[in-house]
Amino acid sequence: MLGHDSAIDVYKQALPVILISLVAGLFAGTLLGTETMREGIASVPGVLLLLPAFLATRGGVYGSLGARLSSGLHQGLIEPRFEWNGRLRNAIVASFLNGMIVSVFIAVLAWGVLLALGREGSLVELVIILFVAALLSAVAMLGVLLTVIFKGYRRGLDPDNVIGPVVTTVGDVFGIVFLLIGIAVTEVIL
Q1: Of 29, 118, 186, 187, which residue is least crowded by CB atoms under 10 Å?
Q2: How far, CA to CA in Å, does 145 sit from each of 5, 62, 131, 156, 182?
Q3: pLDDT under 50 in the chain at which residues?
Q4: What's the confidence (pLDDT) of residue 1?
């Protein structure tokens, strides 16, 4: 178990991750500005509407998982290595299901807002896009999150100091990419 970190220790652990997050966040913004992304967003009514909610929930859902795992490590309830036990499995499955359910809810809500504004939109299209994006982002988020938490902890990093920026950045970058993939998949299916 790690001892209490001084403010300098927290700063030393968090600063590199925050700087990497800054660069990755700029990359995510650059992706949003690409012609492909603009065309993808413009091709499906409602995607721009649901984008902020989708990205925010990646951080919320998987940030909660990171906090839960970090607390488990600090309390000695979870071993500092990936060990598929009941506690870890339940936390991962709950986060995965939360992410999927919330994503479908966002699609339905965005469709409802489109209808309320008198605009056309396809519920099926929005649900498929967010389902695909949520599924792909869950795999990416879980992989990165578990790797950062367990490897970082074994190397002396306090997951509480690094997991917030990591989850936010990975959620934004992969969320945008996977929304675009979801749009492409929807075009093939429908």
Answers
A1: 118
A2: 21, 8, 20, 16, 22
A3: 1-2
A4: 44
Q: Tell me, what's the pLDDT at 49?
A: 92
For the domain with range 7-189, which CATH number is right: 3.30.70.100, 1.10.357.20, 1.10.238.10, 3.40.1160.10?
A: 1.10.357.20
Which pLDDT score, from 0 to 100, does residue 25 have?
Answer: 80
Decide if 73 contacts 163 (C-beta within 8 A).
no
pLDDT score of 67: 92
Residue keyed to tokens 């925010």: 56
Q: In whole angstroms, what is the distance from residue 130 CA to residue 52 CA?
A: 12
DSSP state of 81: S
- Which helix (H) or strand (E) covers residue 92, if one does? helix 86-116
101, amino acid identity = I
Evaluate whether 42 touches 183 at the Cβ level (below 8 Å): no
Return left, alpha or beta for 81; rule: phi > 0 is left, psi -120 to 50 is alpha, else beta.
beta
* Residue 84, C-beta contacts closer than 8 angstroms, at least 6 positions apart: none
